[in-house]
Amino acid sequence: MRFLFPKFDKVGMPLLGVAAAALFVLEAKRQLRPRTRPLAERLVENGSVAAAALPALRFLLVPVTYATASMVTKKGCGILPLLMLPRWAAYGLGFLMLDYSNYLWHVLLHKSEWLWRFHNVHHTDLDLDLSTAWRFHVGENIASVPYRSAVVVAAGIPASLVLLYEVIFEGCTAFHHSNLRLPLQVERGLSKVMVTPRLHGIHHSIVAKETNSNFSVILSWWDRLHNTLRLNVPQAAITIGTPAYRDPAEQTPKCLFLMPFQKQRPWVLPDGTVPERPEIPNREQLLS
Ligand SMILES: [Zn+2]
Q: How far is the C-alpha of 179 from the C-alpha of 215, rounded, in Å?
């Protein structure tokens, strides 16, 4: 199995690094939501979660899905080779299939009790910014390997597209988790096509029906397709996190690593109430 991908590591990763550095500076200058906790503490916490998760992504997920795609191409199996499309069309359709499969995976992370244990570590962050984009439990990344490999086989994805999609996926994940305030009109336009910071901020709300919205990763079309899009919650009205995990003392690297293996708490605030919000009309209208 191949572990070295020169274009991915020498072009894709540095590009992602530059984009992340730019977002880090910009989100500090133009904050979308006020911070509730010190940035330095969260960088240590989220960085420690990422320190386990990122090697699993680079040295397990990427090589396995790439090797799977190489094998698929040799054998000519999956949907894309059957269609005998020109190269550009096969790449375009392959990109859409990968992105749609990641929408479905994200829904599964929320609906499966077992997968939610791992995804909850990402959602218990009490603020949402660039560092949250890498706060994924290593178990969630490992669990995604068989799913994403199966998608590559079923769709017949070319190996180079696996790498290209991964770079765009990581860049878009960094962008939509960032705490960057874009002009509302700009974000209204962008959110018609892709997932934006306000759109994804609603997915990190402690109100259950808002968390169970906006599952898309790159293109926002999948939420429109499945009627899971919700844009009409103002960012100032959102409390970030999950209701039963409000104590900053539980945000230590050790607590976060062990969280999936402990009894999961019900969706209630420490005072026993369930966070709710009356339905706001016009779900597809992005608010400030
Ligand atoms: Zn989620």
A: 18
215: CA distance to ligand 1 center in Å?
A: 7
Query: Domain coordinates of the chain in residue numbers?
Result: 6-261
Distance 64 CA to ligand 1 centre (A): 24
pLDDT in tens, 9-27: 999 999 999 999 999 999 9
Query: End-to-end CA distance of the chain, in Å?
Result: 48
Quickly list DSSP for 192-229: TTB--HHHHHHHTBSSHHHHTS---SSBTHHHHHTT--
Measured in angstroms, how far is the CA atom of residue 110 from the centroid of ligand 1? 6
Residue 8's contacts (CB-CB under 8 Å, 6 or more residues apart) are 62, 163, 166, 167
- State in Å: Cα 203 to ligand 1 middle: 7
pTM score, two decimals?
A: 0.96
